[in-house]
Fold:
Amino acid sequence: MNQETRKTLRPRIHGTTARTIGTAILAGVYLPGHAFLGEIEQAEALGISRTAYREAIRIVAAKGLVDSRPKAGTRVNPRGMWNLLDPDVLAWMFEGEPSEEFIRDLFELRGVIEPAAVGFAAHRREQRHLDAMRVALDEMAKHTLRTPEGQAADQRFHRAILAATGNETMSALATTVGAAVHWTTEFKRRKGAFGERQRDPVPDHERVYDAILRSDAGAARNAMNDLLELALHDMGIEGIGSPARRRRIARAS
Structure:
């Protein structure tokens, strides 16, 4: 194997190993506080080189899942330290079966960010933003959210809204929001929410777009809130503002 080939394969090995370890942590195979074997033993168990294992651990540690120190070894961090909004962590989470509570929490976060974003977008959007949303909506209608093409268009629609806010820090959330949209849509597909007789969510997106087009910030916020609530309902999960949700929060307080 020549040097160029090794350079090409190395990131794949690191990434695949990081994904394996990260998915196992998120699935509860390795609980917080779990101590991994030494570097040599763990690399041998995974069938990879020590260098590949070391780089994989660096990836996982950068996402807050583990703490790795010389001599002290590698341990799984408490859940509160995990970067659950990292796009890779979201992907690893949804490779398994995320809890309904995690899905709700993710939608609750979207319920904070996206209604505010559409309110700003309604006043600040430019024609290029509207064009991007319109193209995305047309692609969603053409391909449906049952397909990868339709799902990619869905992500572009939500990203265009964030770009239309004119807020640089809010636009920086596009990758995270896009990942959340993608994986929750994939979760809905797994749950059969896009069957032939199921509700079509594209009109929900159209209502958001129409309100932004009319520069009606209030209607845009209401339409986005409705979109998120209906998406949860499609998955058979109680809404963000439901009585059961409020009771759970009260018990945790």
Observations:
- Residues 18 and 57 are 7 Å apart (CA to CA).
- The longest strand covers residues 66-69.
- The longest helix spans residues 100-124.
